[in-house]
């Protein structure tokens, strides 16, 4: 039986797009809202990250988003 990660809880300053479902090995894109970038990415152009549903039925942890630097 395939593990189902379900939908992610609301993430601050981002939206989630499920590319191919919510089951094991599915991918979701976490897209930062306008004016934000992926945390700990010091390049302002990195505004999204892909995460994957694990066999344990949980999504990989997202780094989250932060305001873009100057």
Automatic annotation (TrEMBL):
Domain of life: Eukaryota
Residue intervals of the Sushi domain: 7-62
Annotated keywords: Disulfide bond
Protein name from the UniProt record: Sushi domain-containing protein
Organism per entry: Dreissena polymorpha (Zebra mussel)
Lineage of source species: Eukaryota, Metazoa, Spiralia, Lophotrochozoa, Mollusca
């Amino acid at each position: 039986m395939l593990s189902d990660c379900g939908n992610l809880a609301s993430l601050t300053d981002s939206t989630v797009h499920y590319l191919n479902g919510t089951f094991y090995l599915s991918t979701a894109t976490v897209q930062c809202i306008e004016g934000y970038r992926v945390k700990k990415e010091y390049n302002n152009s990195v505004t999204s990250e892909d995460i994957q549903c694990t066999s344990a039925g949980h999504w990989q942890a997202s780094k989250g988003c932060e305001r873009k630097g100057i």
